Amino acid sequence: MKGLSGKIIVPGDFHYEQARQEWNEAISKFPCIIVYCFTTYDVVKAILWSRRQGMKLRIRSGGHNYEGYSTGTGKLVIDTSCMNHIHVNCEQDTVEVQAGVRLTHLYETLYRYGYVFPGGTCPSVAISGLVMGGGIGLSTRYLGLTTDSLIEVNMVDAWGNNIKANNHCNSDLFWALRGAGGGNFGVVTSYKFQLQRAVNKITLIQLEWHDNKPARLEFLRVWQTWLKHLDSRISAFGGIYKRGAWLNSFFYGHPEEAKQLIEPFLNIPGITLRRIEYVDFIDAVQRIGDEYPDREAFQSTGRFIKGCLSQEQLDTLVDITDHAPTDANSYISVYSLGGAVGEKDENDTAFFYRNADYIMGISSNWELAKEAPVHKQWVAAALRYIYPFSVGSYINFPYHDLPDYERAYFGEHVQQLRCIKQQYDPHNVFAFPQSIKTLG
Length: 440
Prior knowledge:
Strand order of the largest sheet: 15-12-14-13-17-18-16-19
Oligomer: single chain
Strand content: 15-25%
Number of domains: 3
CATH topology of the largest domain: Vanillyl-alcohol Oxidase, Chain A, domain 3
C-alpha cells in the first residue's frame, strides 16, 4: 500500500468489522481497503493509488446511503468522516464545512454563533450526501433545500486535481453537484454555505394518533389539502403506520399562530400526543434527532408527489399499511416541499422536482436477518402501487430496482448531467450501481 496516506484499514485489522459497517445494517459489503482521509492530500493519494492499481473506488462520508453505494465488496473506500472542521465567518455570514461533518456538530456550532441551518433531521448524517442530493428537513419550506444555501465547493477529480466550483468558476459542475453530486464527479472535500441569522425560538410541533386506525385516512386527506396554500414558515414530516399516524413540524413563529395553522390536524379525533412548544432552535433539532436509532436494518425509498390523490388511492395506501409486516416499524411517510423550494426554477440546480408538493416515503425495518425478505417485499409492493401517480424519485432515498433510475432521479436533466460527467470524469472513475452514465 505504498503511496497511500491517512488511516488505512484492511480485512483482518482489529477495527475492520466496525469500519465496513454502514448505518443501514442490512448492507454487508467487504471493501479491500478503507482509507480514512484527514486532508485533501490523503484524498488525492487514494484516488491516484486506486487508479494505478486498477481498483474501483467508492466515496463515503457518513455511511448513510440507503443502498450502501458508498461502499462495496472488493473496492477501495475513500472515507472523509475524519475531515470534520467547521469555520464560521460572521462578517460574511458564511461557513466552510469539511465533507465529513455530521449534522449535530454543524447545528450546534452554528447555533453558538447565532445561525440556523436548513439541514436534515438525522443527527449522524454527514453534510456531503445530504447537500449533494438536495437536502430536506424541517426548515425546508422556509429556508430552502440544503443545497440552495451552498455557494462554493472544493472537489478532487479523477486526476487528483483540486477543483473549486461556484457560480463563476466551473459553474456547470457547481450546477450538477447541487442535486446530483453524490459520488458522481469526484470527491468533494469541503463546502461553503451562506447563512441566515437565527431566530431566538421556534415552535416545535409533535402530534400522534397511536392505536387509532381511523386517523390514518383522515391524516392523508388533511395532509394533501393542507399543503396547498400553506404558510412557508412551516415544514412538516409525518406518516401512517398499521396502528396510527404522526406529524413532526417546525414553525418559525409563535405557538398561538402555529395552532391556527395546524388546526386541521388537531381536529382529527383521537389524538394521543399533542406537543406544541416554543423552544430554542437547537432544542427542537435535538428533540427530533433523539428519535433516530444509532443504526438499524431497513429498506426504504421515496417518490415525489404532485397534486391530490383520489379517495381510492388514499384508501389503498391505508390498506397497504394494514398489510405491513410490523405494527409500528413499517410506514408510509410524507415530507413537505413547496415554499422556498418552489421559488427557484427547476433549472437553477440539478434538483429537478422543485414543483412537487411533497415526497412520499416507504420504509420498513427489522431486527433479525431472516425477517428481511418479507419487509423488502412489502416495500417493493408499495412502491409499485405509488409509482404510476408519482413524478420521480428522491436521490437521497435511493432504491436499487428503480426502472430508468437516471430519469427517475434527475428528470429532464439527465442529458446535461451526462455531458458534465463526460467532461469531469470521462473514464468513469467515480462509478457505482446508480451513478450517472458517461456519454456513448
